[in-house]
Hints:
Blueprint: H1 3-15, H2 28-39, H3 45-57, E1 61-69, E2 75-84, H4 86-94, H5 100-111, H6 121-124, H7 130-147
Antiparallel strand pairs: 1-2
Helix pairs in contact: 1-2, 1-3, 4-5
Amino acid sequence: MNKTKHAVMIALFASMQNGAKHYTKASAHRLRELLAKYHGIQIQRRWLFYCLADAEGAGLIRRKVRYHRKPDGTFVQLSSMVTFTLSGVKYLVQKKITGALELLKRMLAFIAGKDKRWPDLNDIAPTWTPGEMNTNRRRLKALVENLG
């Protein structure tokens, strides 16, 4: 991950109020402002969206598209809701980002079922096919049998 993509991840985290919220609705314009102000990086919208798509493809973030219906029946696209996945928060913790460890602890509490807000478990945990689940169950069973 290059310097700009790393800075985008930090800007996303900062727009979540350093993990105080579990998502961000920061617009592309606001993210570009944060990059320019705190990192000295000037990028165009297209490169920002490439960075976000790359982070999403790597499984570090998830985006939820949002729309608003006007009274005349037309739709307006709003800025996406972005949340970090478990892998994304681990990335931030590895990079020693202040506040990332607290977010990781809250995310683990969410996975344990103590928090019912968005994002859903499917948005932060990896999705496995039934075949992968069966393979993992067999591997776990074999591991337990070897231990005892």
